[in-house]
Amino acid sequence: ETGVTQTPRHLVMGMTNKKSLKCEQHLGHNAMYWYKQSAKKPLELMFVYSLEERVENNSVPSRFSPECPNSSHLFLHLHTLQPEDSALYLCASSQEPVVTYEQYFGPGTRLTVT
Amino acid sequence: GIQVEQSPPDLILQEGANSTLRCNFSDSVNNLQWFHQNPWGQLINLFYIPSGTKQNGRLSATTVATERYSLLYISSSQTTDSGVYFCAVEGYGGSQGNLIFGKGTKLSVKP
């Protein structure tokens, strides 16, 4: 596979469930990102990882827990979510986490919290 | 923080027509990207264009950094061009990798 892949593509979970979103990049990049796209709101950056270290956390609630075991994989662990967390979650990667590199996005996971 | 405004918010075109989408930003930028989000949610890179002009087939983009705007031109539009077009920027001194997105222009191309 090439580019950035995400699984699952769709997820429905209850507020008491625990689930994880997975992202994998096949581009040899060193930086990975999680974004959230809610209805009628701009995309919002959640987390930035560079070489498996978190370098940015945009005040995201603790019910979202990222994990980056290596530079190719990124997870977003979800627990005790709220219905307002329903959104499209997008993963991206770039060569380095600095302004001069393009970010490439995965297809997203559409999450519904019931 | 830096503000990004896109216009128009919605655009309906007949197939074959041309269009111009605009992105205004409130401060100097190091990074500007245009994306197309298809109906399935996939964000596709169109251009990385912090300044200057680029062309790729029927699409071209121009960023005038000194005047803080970027334009995306779509010529001879096709129904497959439908979707939402986003402009995203990162300013000088911004957080690492923190692209700030506009609200997008929703384009519908009718056959």
How would you describe this structure to a colleague?
The complex is a heterodimer of chains A (about 110) and B (about 110). Helices cover about 0% and strands about 55% of the residues of chain A. With about 110 residues, chain A is mainly β. In chain A, the strands form two sheets. In chain A, strands 2, 4, 5, 6, 9, 10 and 11 form a seven-stranded mixed sheet that branches. Chain A has a four-stranded antiparallel sheet with strand order 1-3-8-7, with no helix packed on it. The model of chain A has no long low-confidence stretch (mean pLDDT about 90). With about 110 residues, chain B is an all-beta fold. In chain B, strands 2, 4, 5, 9, 10 and 11 form a six-stranded mixed sheet that branches. In chain B, about 35% of the residues are buried. The interface of A and B includes residues 37 and 88 of A.
Low-confidence stretches of chain B: none
Largest sheet of chain B at a glance? 6 strands, mixed
Shape of chain B: globular
Give the distance, in angstroms, between the N- and C-terminal Cα atoms of chain A: 32 Å
Q: What Rg of chain B do the Cα atoms give?
A: 13 Å
- Judged by helices, strands and strand pairing, the structural class of chain A is mainly beta
- Give the total of beta strands of chain B: 11
Tally of helical segments of chain B: 0
Write a concise keyword list for the protein shown above.
heterodimer, A: 114 residues, mainly beta, 7-stranded mixed beta sheet, 4-stranded antiparallel beta sheet, 0% helix, globular, B: 111 residues, 6-stranded mixed beta sheet, 5-stranded antiparallel beta sheet, 11 strands
